[in-house]
Design goal:
It is a single chain. Strand 4 and strand 5 form a beta hairpin. By secondary structure, the chain is mainly β. Helix content is 8%, strand content 45%. The chain binds zinc ion. Zinc ion binds next to loops. Zinc ion (ZN) binds next to loops.
């Protein structure tokens, strides 16, 4: 990625017509990419679908298969969370929180040292592009405990994996 300093967003332009809309993920102008992600660096593309009430915990893929990623909400409504994991940073663990709606296409570009996760308010499909192979052995879950006070939704109603549930007790 060109920007090696932070996680950031890129508002994508959806072009509507009477049938629906067209959304280009990697538009070019005169052969020059208009977004920062170099599509040739993409190793894997996959989607998750999640019911309302699902919390997908804050993951980063680090180590041998360290991966940058692009996250795009295709449809649904979520609250999105990002945490910077770099230990040398004073703002370690500072969390970015925001509500997202799939009708407003925004791609989030995340370097490997950001953990990303989300809570689903309305059934959601999320697309991921990875710059390395997706490897569950290299996934770290960090900061799930920080989400609880931000959401204000009783945790016993959340639908979570065992791995995410176990990570609630780890502090960051
Ligand atoms: Zn790995």
């Amino acid at each position: 990625m060109k920007n090696q300093t932070d996680a950031f967003d890129e508002r994508l332009t959806s072009i509507p017509d009477l049938r629906g809309s067209l959304l280009k993920l990697f538009p070019t102008k005169g052969g020059v990419p208009e977004v920062v992600w170099d599509i040739s660096q993409t190793q894997e593309i996959f989607f998750t679908r999640s019911k309302a009430g699902v919390f997908r915990g804050l993951l980063a893929q680090r180590g041998e298969h360290s991966s940058d990623k692009v996250v795009l909400l295709i449809q649904g409504k979520i609250t999105d969370f990002l945490i910077d994991l770099r230990s040398e940073r004073k703002d370690l663990g500072s969390m970015q929180v925001r509500k997202m709606d799939g009708s407003v296409p925004i791609a989030i570009f995340v370097l490997d040292y950001y953990a990303h996760g989300y809570y689903v308010h309305e059934e959601a499909t999320v697309m991921y592009l990875y710059s390395n192979v997706h490897c569950q052995d290299c996934e770290v879950v960090k900061g799930n405990n920080r989400v609880i006070p931000k959401l204000g939704i009783p945790i016993d109603t959340w639908i979570v994996s065992k791995k995410d549930r176990d990570a609630f007790s780890e502090s960051i």
